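Recall the central idea of this unit: under ordinary conditions, the amino acid sequence of a chain determines the structure it adopts. In this exercise we apply that idea directly, starting from the sequence alone.
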Amino acid sequence: MFSSRRTYSRDDSKHRAGKSSSFATKAASFGGSKKRSFREPSISKRRALEQAQKPESPPLGSILTSCIITLVVGPEQRLFAAHEDVLCISPFFAAACRGQFMESHSKRISLPDEAPEIFSSVLEYLYKGDYYPRLNFNKRRNAWELEDTDGQRVPQAEATVYHHGLNGSVLKDTVIYCTAEKYGLEELKRLALRKQGLQSGIQCSTILTSARYAYANTPDSDSKLRAHYLALIIRSRSTFKRSGTMQMEMENGGRLFFDLFVALCNHADDIVAIS
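Accordingly, the structure predicted from this sequence is:
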C-alpha cells in the first residue's frame, strides 16, 4: 500500500532543510512556551524523559487474561491483533471496546481510513513504549539519536510514507503525531515530535506537504507540531525562498501561511527589541 519513493522536481532536489530542534526564535513558541532542547539533558532529566515515553501499561497478568481484539485496517483490510487491555490505554479504543465501534459477535474493530504502516507503529508503541526507529541517548555524544543511525541522517525513504490522498510523501512522525492526537495518546505525540526534530535533509516539497497535513489533522489549539513547522521554515528561510514549491504553496494560501506571517513578525519584533 505504501511506497517510499517519489519523483521530485529539479527545483526541490537543490533545496533541503536541516534539523529544527535547535531553532530558538519566537516562532518556536508561536502556540505555547519555548521547549528545552533534548540534545544536552542532565542525567536526571534524561531518565525522566526515557520514563515519560512509556505508556501507562496495564499489569502483565491483566494482559495475559485479556481477550484478543482483531483490527481491520485500511482499504486493503489488513488484519492486526492486540490485547484489549493494551488497546484500552487509548481513550479512543477504550470507547470502541465498550461497543461503540466494535462488532460484538466477533471482537473486531474496523479502521478503514487508517494507514497500516502507521497503525503498526502505534501498536508497537502501546506494547513497547516506542516505535522503530527507537529513540536512544548516546552517552558518548551526549545527544539523542535514532537507533541504527549512529547520529547520521535518516534516509528520506525511511522517514516518509506515501499518502494516497495527497499523492505524495509525508513525514512518518507527523502522521503518527496526528494519529496519536486522534487516539488520545499524549506521550506518543511528544515522542513523535521529538523524533521528527532529529530529522534533516528533507526535501522542501515534503516539508510543505507534511505541514499542510499537520494543519489539516490537528486542532487549531495545537501548539506543538504546527509551531515545529513554522520554526523549521523560518530557520531554513534562505532555502525555502529559493524554492518554486514554496512559491506555489504560498499562492494557494491557507492557515499555515498566515501563522507563518505572524511568526515572522514576532521574530522581527524580537530582533528589533534586541538591537
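The radius of gyration is 20 Å.
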